[in-house]
Amino acid sequence: MKIKCIYSLLTLLLCGCATTSWQSDTLPSPLSGDEIAVNHSTERILEAREQILNEPKQTKVSAPSVISQGKTEDSAQKPLWPSETGIATYYAHDMEGRTTASGEPYDPEQLTAAHRTIPIGSSVRVINLKTRQQAIVRINDRWGGGGDRIINLSKQASIQLGFGSAGTVPVQLDVESLPSGAQPRARIQTLPSRIEESSAKNQSRLKICQNEADILGLTENFYRNHVTACLSRRE
């Protein structure tokens, strides 16, 4: 009887040890401090990712195109007429009231000018290359000049450009506008041959006036107006 009790007690002890061993193997071990920190960091990353995924998507707006400074649509266009540089003069006092190539009488108080090829009715910006003074004149007459002279200005235009006592000044010409129907010219044409002063005595006055009109490139009414005005000049 005593032996049987001892055997039963040993059996209970062995079963208890086996149960304790199995529970210790299946239960998770306590986490260390580092492992807890890693788990918290992972949770924050997952929460941030979830927030980003749930945010409404924004439409991407492209940045406006930038136009280079100093460049405009107007400046990209070709000029209406070739720019010219040369010498400017102004009408003599006794030309007042004379008929110009446009049919208008010359008025020294108006901002007008004569040029060989720029279409009648064009507006031209004249720049004094010494002082940078400017004047915008209307072309209403023809003039061939001579040498490097390129434009003949009204008295008022010469005052605005600061001629002073000088009879000529170096200038730059830039065409601001052309009359309706006028075609821009690709280049400045060369002048036809001029009747030399030495042989002018052997030529009729009409021939000399026609030669001037040819040099000026005049046609039709402009040609006739110039010849008529030329024939009326005093010798």
TrEMBL record:
<keyword id="KW-0732">Signal</keyword>
<dbReference type="Pfam" id="PF03330">
    <property type="entry name" value="DPBB_1"/>
</dbReference>
<dbReference type="InterPro" id="IPR034718">
    <property type="entry name" value="RlpA"/>
</dbReference>
<feature type="domain" description="RlpA-like protein double-psi beta-barrel">
    <location>
        <begin position="84"/>
        <end position="172"/>
    </location>
</feature>
<keyword id="KW-0961">Cell wall biogenesis/degradation</keyword>
<comment type="function">
    <text>Lytic transglycosylase with a strong preference for naked glycan strands that lack stem peptides.</text>
</comment>
<dbReference type="GO" id="GO:0005886">
    <property type="term" value="C:plasma membrane"/>
</dbReference>
<dbReference type="GO" id="GO:0071555">
    <property type="term" value="P:cell wall organization"/>
</dbReference>
<keyword id="KW-0564">Palmitate</keyword>
<dbReference type="GO" id="GO:0000270">
    <property type="term" value="P:peptidoglycan metabolic process"/>
</dbReference>
<keyword id="KW-0456">Lyase</keyword>
<keyword id="KW-1003">Cell membrane</keyword>
<feature type="signal peptide">
    <location>
        <begin position="1"/>
        <end position="23"/>
    </location>
</feature>
<feature type="region of interest" description="Disordered">
    <location>
        <begin position="57"/>
        <end position="79"/>
    </location>
</feature>
<dbReference type="InterPro" id="IPR036908">
    <property type="entry name" value="RlpA-like_sf"/>
</dbReference>
<dbReference type="InterPro" id="IPR009009">
    <property type="entry name" value="RlpA-like_DPBB"/>
</dbReference>
<dbReference type="GO" id="GO:0008932">
    <property type="term" value="F:lytic endotransglycosylase activity"/>
</dbReference>
<dbReference type="InterPro" id="IPR012997">
    <property type="entry name" value="RplA"/>
</dbReference>
<feature type="compositionally biased region" description="Polar residues">
    <location>
        <begin position="59"/>
        <end position="70"/>
    </location>
</feature>
<keyword id="KW-0449">Lipoprotein</keyword>
<protein>
    <recommendedName>
        <fullName>Endolytic peptidoglycan transglycosylase RlpA</fullName>
        <ecNumber>4.2.2.-</ecNumber>
    </recommendedName>
</protein>
<comment type="similarity">
    <text>Belongs to the RlpA family.</text>
</comment>
<keyword id="KW-0472">Membrane</keyword>
